[in-house]
Amino acid sequence: MPTSRQRDGHPSPAAVSAVALRKSYGDKTVLDGIDLRIPAGSVFALLGPNGAGKTTTIKILSTLITADDGQAQVAGHNLTTEPQAARAAIGVTGQFSAVDGLITGEENMLLMADLHHLPKAEGRRITTELLQRFDLTEAAKKPASTYSGGMKRRLDLAMTLVGSPRIIFLDEPTTGLDPRSRHTMWQIIRQLVSDGATVLLTTQYLDEADELADRIAVLNNGRIAAEGTPDQLKRLIPGGHIRLRFTHPTTHHNAATALPDATSNNDALTLQIPSDGSQRQLRTILDQLDTAGIEADELTVHTPDLDDVFFALTTTTNTTTNNTTPIPHQPQENAR
């Protein structure tokens, strides 16, 4: 996975930045002053429940709609004063496929090349290369309506890449795909970033964000409830613990004496110790048991995952976003 730092250790420049973006429809506030900074050459994920403002953010940053207030830059271009220049640098794959099912996959690609005003020969060359890259060559002459969901999504993304965008917006790119197709799409996204692209994706799949993203912002009720690397977000949520299980009651009792901070379950013969998941703390606990001459029959470590983060930071009402503390924008090495 690429990191958001350059080789000399300095932060990468921002491919996308936004300050105090706001958007309302009538009396409904969809975005309530969000800030974003997405380093070049990274994957940035927006998480949030339906209606949190994810798609609206994508639409604003891709110049499909305008914000009511705030400022945004994409590829160094101000969206208000230089929208055309920004559009030339971006590609967008929306929630709903742009594929025309009445024509073939190849014809969809060539149509996109024409829309980008590419010379015929160049358009055919790029079409051939992208169809090969996305494993669509055999199906190229078939109507797109005959494609599976995964094939249509790959074709949709291939069409997005015809103009060689440096910044790619993916709005829920794997929704409705089977697990194999999802993993194929993940591999494609990783390769895009390895080739130098910047990706902003929205997703309902928490494992997808954990797998792909260098940084994640959690949107709730139009505000960013928290932002950081996946590991930083997980550390926001309490509940991590080490669980020890014993076979004999006497050993369990002696371990509880040696570990006074542990919560004991006498029926299950287990001890549970609050933990931040660090190697240092685990070593300390094992040293305490070793000093007491005690050996656990089973040891498991539980750390909060993005599901825990999501449920802790999002709600279906407008009542909780003010109680969260965003992590400062600090582009850094991916800790995973």
Q: SSE order in H/E notation?
A: EEEHEEHEHHHEHEHEEHEHEEHEH
**Terminus-to-terminus distance:** 9 Å
In spatial order, strands of the major sheet run 6-7-8-3-9-10
Major β-sheet profile = 6 strands, mixed
Instruction: Indicate the percent of residues in helices.
Output: 25-40%
Q: What is the name of the CATH architecture of the largest domain?
A: 3-Layer(aba) Sandwich
Explain the overall architecture.
Helix 3 (105-115) crosses helix 4 and helix 3 (105-115) packs parallel to helix 5 (149-160). The model is unreliable at 1-8 and 316-336 (pLDDT under 50). The chain is of the alpha/beta class and 336 residues long. The chain folds into 2 domains: 14-236 and 307-323, Rossmann fold (3-Layer(aba) Sandwich); 241-302, Alpha-Beta Plaits. It contains 11 helices and 14 strands. The protein starts with 13 loop residues before the first strand and ends in a 23-residue tail after the last helix. It has a 6-stranded mixed sheet, with helices on both faces. Strands 2-1-4-5 form a 4-stranded antiparallel sheet, covered by helices on one side.
Q: Briefly, what is this?
A:
This protein is an alpha/beta fold. It has eleven helices and 14 strands.
Keywords, separated by commas or semicolons:
Rossmann fold; four-stranded antiparallel sheet; Alpha-Beta Plaits; elongated; disordered C terminus; alpha/beta; six-stranded mixed sheet; single chain; disordered N terminus; 336 residues
Q: How are the secondary structure elements laid out?
A:
Layout: E1 14-25, E2 28-39, E3 43-47, H1 54-61, E4 69-74, E5 77-78, H2 83-89, E6 90-93, H3 105-115, H4 120-133, H5 149-160, E7 167-171, H6 179-194, E8 198-202, H7 206-212, E9 215-220, E10 223-228, H8 230-236, E11 241-245, H9 249-258, E12 263-265, E13 270-274, H10 279-291, E14 298-302, H11 306-313
Parallel strand pairs: 3-8, 3-9, 6-7, 7-8
Antiparallel strand pairs: 1-2, 1-4, 4-5, 9-10, 11-13, 11-14, 12-13
Helix pairs in contact: 3-4, 3-5
